[in-house]
Amino acid sequence: xxxxxxxxxxxxxxxxxxxxxxxxxxxxxxxxxxxxxxxxxxxxxxxxxxxxxxxxxxxxxxxxxxxxxxxxxxxxxxxxxxxxxxxxxxxxxxxxxxxxxxxxxxxxxxxxxxxxxxxxxxxxxxxxxxxxxxxxxxxxxxxxxxxxxxxxxxxxxxxxxxxxxxxxxxxxxxxxxxxxxxxxxxxxxxxxxxxxxxxxxxxxxx
Length: 206
Ligand SMILES: N[C@@H](CCC(=O)N[C@@H](CS)C(=O)NCC(=O)O)C(=O)O
What we know:
This protein has 206 residues and is of the alpha+beta class.
């Protein structure tokens, strides 16, 4: 059976949990990371030398990097659904998978760490404000993309929606002032109706 290591409140673990939920893949999740530990043990690092979650073992096939895991599971179990059969359609969604990691996360981290993750005494409000301003511009790009199509993956939900769907939950749930983005909010409204999104992504913020 598919085994997943990672704490439920990690944004990168949420990607995998939402994916397995959408595809109905039988699995077992082991809490790991932060207070749960495990990720720095020699046994874990033998599987993922980065010492980071998520990590999967699919009947002996070991894989780390959340987006690679979502692509692997979508290709293996989600052909025609999360894994669009047309390569062009798939690629149009796929481009939104690594964009958060490369472009959004450096700014998003400034917000999330100073609004949620750090103890109140250690929060840097100026840094949070800087991150909110930058993320507002970046999410406006996502809003623009969703003004012409219902999902980032095209006409139907696909793997391309998964990473940003996880970040959108955090962005739209944090107690911060954000510009209104009607297309992003309409897309998020559809995601919130999905049982796999509710159970895999909509976990308590901290
Ligand atoms: N690029 C990696 C990043 C993985 C990552 O940074 N994981 C964080 C949680 S979101 C982690 O393991 N942090 C250490 C910890 O939780 O102890 C991926 O997408 O899987």
